Amino acid sequence: MKLLYVHIAEKLKEDTEGNLYTDGSYNTDVWDRYLAICDVLTVLCRKETRKYDVEYAKRSFNPVKPGVKFVNVETRTSSLRDYLSIKKIVANRLMIQKEVLGCDCLIVRSPTSGGYTAVRYARTLNKPYLVEVVGCAWDSLWQHSLKGKVLALKAYLKLRNAVRNAPYVLYVTEEFLQRRYPSKGKSIGCSDVTLPTLDEKVLDDRLRRLNAMSPEKPIVLGTIGAVDVPYKGQEYVIKALARLSKQGYDFEYHLVGGGDNTYLRGIAEKNGIAEKVRFLGSLAHEKVFDYLDQIDVYIQPSKTEGLPRALIEAMSRGCPAVGSEVGGIPELLSKEFTFRPGSIKQICDLLRQLDRQTMISAAVRNFNKAKEFEKELLRKKRAEFYRDYVEYVQSTKHDL
Question: Which residues contact 97 (CB under 8 A, 6 or more apart)?
């Protein structure tokens, strides 16, 4: 069976020697779940125009999985003229149509604009398709920019239409995305975040760390996410720490994530806490847990999210955590550890209440909650849903 996996975002990366990589969210385990249900896996995505230093790429990204074929859809820049280029639009649509025509079935990861084109061709060509809903089209665009606000309603309606009529839908949340984008087809809530079986020693080490906390040392907060994407919300944490610093509280903020940190660094300098904000850059996925073990509290200040991988991974390391009331975050954290997105006051209120006992209780609760995302548990749940989809594909082959 030939499976076309569609995620038309800039996920394919290249180094100066021509070697190809994918980012941390696409590793061997992810590709294996799709290879298990097909004979040929083709991935439709975009390749970044930037070429990375070889050593940096090896350190920060995942080498492409052997046996996976990548088809590069031409990238359009953020300029309005290029974004609306008829030549590129037509070329991309023809490429998508060609790949849909050549496959037996599709899995479309949404929201992505090219994904909706693939769904449209799948319907026209009578190809079975499954939609993976990993985020909210409305939230991600509305919080992005002025241009995003203009495009948000159209993208929201496109995703609702794609999901409503899809034969199969996999949501990464249990409630939020299902309410926002309901489906008439078969559906399942199953996070794409998978964790190894959790070792109780991790929690023991966390509790020892919390019990050993000294008022003479700062409480270290951490966030994982691109540092040049405004809707990730790190600026609100920096401003909250500036306010808390004036009140005599001692926090540091360690940020992991790629991108230009000029804007966030400028906020830290303007607020007089540059020495308390550290930018650690991108980390290879295998080094993320080491980073999480060195922080005291994880904070997810996003203005839009699906079900954030980094927050779940932080919880699996026994991190006390706080986060904004968006997307699937309230499904992960107790209400008393959430805040209104962008509310500096509520961030300050939450951080002030983090005494040792509160943090210990949160660490135990988060560690146990993270067990719901253990790899084997989710693998079985997802594999059963995919097997059902494959049976559906095979039953419709006579119509292809």
Answer: 121
